[in-house]
Amino acid sequence: MNRAAVIALTALAPVSWGSTYAVATEFLPADRPLFTAVMRALPAGLLLVALSRTLPRGAWWWKSAVLGALNIGAFFPLLFLAAYRLPGGVAAVLGSAGPLFVAGLATVVLGERVRPRQLLAAVVAALGVSMVVLKAGAALDLVGVLAGVASSASMAAGTVMTKRWGRPEGAGPLAVTGWQLTAGGLLVLPVAALAEGAPPALDGRALAGYGYLALVNTAVAYWLWFRGIGRLTATSVTLLGPLSPLTAAVIGWAALGQALSPVQVAGMAVAFGATVAGQLAAGAASRPKSSPSVPVAGSFSSTEQNDRKFSMDLTDAAVRR
């Protein structure tokens, strides 16, 4: 699979996440961010582990816990806390800072060379997002702002460490995604019980919302995201992040009857253009490295090996115990 196809598939993850704001406000109980985080992560993780029929081994028990905490266990509650305490536009702008966190961490931890054009693309994309979602007089809540910044930093660290550690031999992206979602959901579960008490009563509308978040928005989307991290640079993957608030704005216009002003339309064009430019810059940075590399322990496998291992996750599940 060529790089453009990998980028297109990976981009489906933030596009899916863009629907989170609409689902949370239109379908889910209010003021239950921790319960929502559990319902989003734990069922999805258990489903993927059951499909892959693969459990962590050795050091991957604690590595899965760490990655699960960064990508899921801390990120989900902080994200929903920011969404509940801030206007959606402010939360989205704080989230768009993620590529800058990743760029810094990838340089230090992974030794990735981040070009100035990529950093410029990240800043311009954040500017475009702010044009789309920020409104005059938007109230700022300190707890919400801190939660939004912390959620971006947590996801950035999780993205970089996912790239750093790769995945163990014999485990496909389906299994590794399931481990992280399960670990993250289990970490949030006792905190949700202590902080929010018993689960709220759920009607059919809420069950449908949680079902969508668990299956499409989490299980499928995170599998595509982690699969993309295995094939692209960490910075390249995270530069797709602005697609999430842009999708949220489109959904608000198309499904919720929210009007888009000329400034917002211009902001969408700016953010989308910056996202494309960031991918082109990342491709130019990686193009000189055309010689085949020798796999090392803890690194991601080649594209062909990834495809084969994913196939094994689905077709060989019956013979693995």
Short description:
The protein is 74% helix and 0% strand.
Order of helices and strands: HHHHHHHHHHHHHHH
Major sheet size, sense and barrel closure:
none
- Provide a count of the helices: 15
Number of strands: 0
What are the salient characteristics of this protein?
mainly alpha, disordered C terminus, 74% helix, 15 helices, 321 residues
Summarize the structure in words.
The protein is mostly helical. Helix content is 74%, strand content 0%. It contains 15 helices and no strands. Helix 1 (3-17) crosses helix 13 (243-254), helix 6 runs antiparallel to helix 8 (116-133) and helix 10 (173-196) crosses helix 11. The two termini are 30 Å apart. Mean pLDDT is 83; it is low at 288-321.
Layout: helices, strands, pairs:
Blueprint: H1 3-17, H2 20-26, H3 33-52, H4 60-73, H5 75-85, H6 88-95, H7 98-110, H8 116-133, H9 142-165, H10 173-196, H11 204-231, H12 234-238, H13 243-254, H14 262-286, H15 303-315
